Amino acid sequence: MHETSIQEMIDNYVEPFEEEMDQKRSRGNEVIQKDSIQSWLVCLGAAFLVGIAMSMTNCFGVLFVSWTHEFQGSRAKIAWIGAFQYICYLSFCPASGILTQYYSFRPVVLLGSILLCLGLLLSSFLNHIYLLYLTYGVIFGTGVSLLFMPSILVLPMYFQRHLNTATGLVIAANSSFTMWYAPMYEYLIRRYGWRAALRIVTCFLIPLVVACCLFPSKKKVPSLRDKGNLNVKKSLKRLLKNKEFLTWCLLMTLVYLWQLVPTFHLIAFADDIGIPTYISVYSITLMYGMDAVGKVVSGKLIDILHWNVHTFNILSLLTLAVSVTLLPLAKTTAHVFTIAAFLGCSLGIQSLCVIIITPKLTHPDDSRLAVTYLFAGLSLPGGAGPGVAAWIFDMTRSYHLAFLIAGAFFACAACLSILVESLVSRNTNRNYTTMVKMQEQLQISTSHNTTDIIINK
After folding, report:
1. Domains of the chain: total
2. Model-level pTM?
3. pLDDT digits over 205-218, tens only?
4. What CATH number has the domain bearing residue 368?
5. Which residue in 254, 279, 313, 446 has the fewest CB atoms around it within 10 Å?
């Protein structure tokens, strides 16, 4: 994700809050001072929430190996636990944004912190796979969503001059926290067992609550519960009639269906070829380190050099296709780590392109909802991918076919991206032609009015 694109996505979201704050200013109530010390404290709290929530999600592969050994069940059943968590996380994004508008930020992130830790704590006492679908999948996944979306949407309330920097810091927490959380998670599981590890991780509730207290209260950011500013139905109808957006959704479905497969199954694949978990876990660290590098470097190139973001999207998808296709050929630790580096970099660039491109395909009034609706629509295919890959493993006793299918889907998505780019270019040219015609009509109308005034005089 790129800070500039995030700002474009939520500009319209913030406007109703800013109107309310202007009214508050006229009544002498407390007003947020942007780019202040308090602003950076909010940024710190948001980065902590995003880092903890997303790093736990990213490290499911570590837990997946332990549960496979513990329950001795099919990998498909166990993979669907993480899939349910991912589905709940993405599908609840629109509701999370709406709850933030209705009840302000602090209550929503506090509820998210409680649900996140409650899901982990309850999971540590269970002995049945299907109950983990509820505790880890639904409860924990909903908590992740309630922490992620408000942490992104709060930043424009507190920053103006340094908004890009603050957004970059919060988004980078996703990758940076995963880099150290994965080895720590693996150590706790190896030393104390996965049940004790989940209970220890639950202690993060205390710093999570402290971070939530850094978020603004209702006095600073009023809710929109009774203001009628949320026209969700009208926005959704426009999106469903938008051919470019629907084509983009189809493209992202192909990508997200297999995007999580390497993240979920890389450690299990390494374990199958004889690489110990305490070594292969650092492939996740390397992957998300390169993920952060890919986001920052490509974002700067797009921002400073004005390179075509669609070209970056196509190249990232092609890199994903090649990397995943070559993964079955990996036989050593060096092979796995090298492919993990390319996977991480391409995944980071592709996630950045999603946030940049999506708002540009929609009406300006829909940009604040387009990404959340896209994520909600991708929740089912995104969650189904790891489960399907695990089912293929159960049938063939190998990940080779699953990785080859994933590579084929990424290659098809790269080809479809070319079509999306052509649609966007055609739409841009049409809008430019319409704007030129409107300017010419305006000039003619102004000329006629001036002539009439002179004649009357």
Report:
1. 1
2. 0.72
3. 888 888 888 887 76
4. 1.20.1250.20
5. 446
